[in-house]
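User: Could you write out the 3D structure of this protein bound to pyridoxal-5'-phosphate? I've included everything you need below.
Assistant: Certainly. Input first, then the structure.
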Amino acid sequence: MLHLCKTIIKEMGITDKINEILASIPKNVKLVAVSKTKPIEDIKEAYEGGYRIFGENKPQELKTKFEALPKDIEWHFIGHLQTNKVKYIAPFVSLIHAVDSIKLLKMINKEAEKNNRTINCLLQFHIADEDSKFGLSFEEALGMLESDEFKSLKNISIVGVMGMATHTDNQEQISKEFSNLKNIFSNLKDRFFTNSNSFTEISMGMSGDYKLAIEQGSSMIRVGSSIFGARNYNI
Ligand SMILES: *Cc1c(COP(=O)(O)O)cnc(C)c1O
């Protein structure tokens, strides 16, 4: 019986996995299917199954995939973005998840203006108990949002926050970190975005922790390996 179950799981396609996740999460939580490192054929398979929201974390890879695939896909940039690479994705990206400096925000604004559009962004917060992760502290975000420099940017829209929890088995710790991000979101909403209908997103939760993230108020989960399988960085 166990053997049979394993066989069934193995034979589930990409679309089955997406549909399984969609069926298990609340309707108001968006699923970003993280296709980074995966071939265009895998995204095409998901697309043909009806899915339209994908996430990538390398600007050139995203540009290549954008060019090769249908244009009604909603592309999210989920990784650390270098200022000199904003130009690759500015013409078409739907949401940039990980903005953590005014320098980056200014470049996004500049490239958005060149393309005659407004680019939606999330502020990334450092919520994990790890040094290696990027992200703002609450104080840094306050400084940024209060600055005249920020207020002068007309081609970006801050639509919410994003964060990554510590890579740990300690569920309580992960929940606490997600709850912290939810509090940051509420606090910023009260201080800076009370009159904004667009400051709505809390991007948190990946394959290993999205259920905990949803319990803590996530509005957007970023799931890669549970949909497309484990990534191989050596190919
Ligand atoms: C790769 C990545 C994900 C998806 O990770 P999985 O564990 O494969 O679901 C989510 N968010 C970010 C920022 C990532 O870089």
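Residues 171-192 form the longest helix (22 residues).
User: Perfect, thank you.
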